[in-house]
Amino acid sequence: KLKSKNILLVLGSVSYSLCGYASAYLSQCMWTDCIIYTPLIFYGLDRLMEKKKPLVYIASLAACMVSSFFISYSICLCIAIYFVFEMICKLEFEKNEACKTRIVSFKELMLTVVRFAVSSVLAAGIASIVLIPVAKCLGNAMVSDSEFPKNIEWYNNIAEYINAMLPETPPSLVYGI
């Protein structure tokens, strides 16, 4: 994305690949593929916005949705926030005679938004080939008849939750906070 060869970029990439999320959820291998897909999705989104080539974005987003639909919802939310941020950064303003600003490339901005929306819906459509039957099967499971709890119950006190977030606290992988 930055089109430069810099040791800091390599160190940042290695840091991402060895981040605490991957270490803490090593036993949750079902989410590891989404850790791999996320940079590909963002790379595809950048290609979609800059070069108008949506294939990498569509393929990687659809693969992410198919491989782990639990985490892909969070990734889709993150993509949407990133897209809005990038669109705000790409706005160009120009002053006119009345000292007011106007958007110079509004048409291009709208075309990019439409391209993003169509590509995202297309990726979801591709993934729906697998997701719709899975949703129907999950709807037939025994727990689908259970109701959402009416009272929220805390299993630990707030001090224990805060203590679990401190830097020196070892990760709890099974039945901890």
* Annotation, overall tally of beta strands: 2
- Strand sequence of the main sheet, in spatial order? 1-2
Which overall shape is indicated by the principal axes computed on the Cα atoms? globular
Alpha carbon gap, first and last residue: 38 Å
For this entry, what is the oligomeric state of its chains? single chain
The major beta sheet can be summarized as: 2 strands, antiparallel
Q: How many DSSP H or I helices? A: 7
Strand content: under 5%
- The secondary-structure class comes to mainly alpha
Compressed to H and E, one letter per element, the order equals HHHHHEEHH
Residues in helix, %? 55-70%
What does this structure look like?
It is a single chain. The protein has 177 residues and is mostly helical. Helices cover 63% and strands 3% of the residues. It has seven helices and two strands, in the order αααααββαα. The chain has helices at 7-17, 20-24, 32-51, 55-67, 69-90, 106-139, 158-164, and strands at residues 93-95, 101-103. A two-stranded antiparallel ribbon has the order 1-2. Strand 1 (93-95) and strand 2 form a beta hairpin. Helix 4 (55-67) runs antiparallel to helix 5. It is globular. The two termini are 38 Å apart.
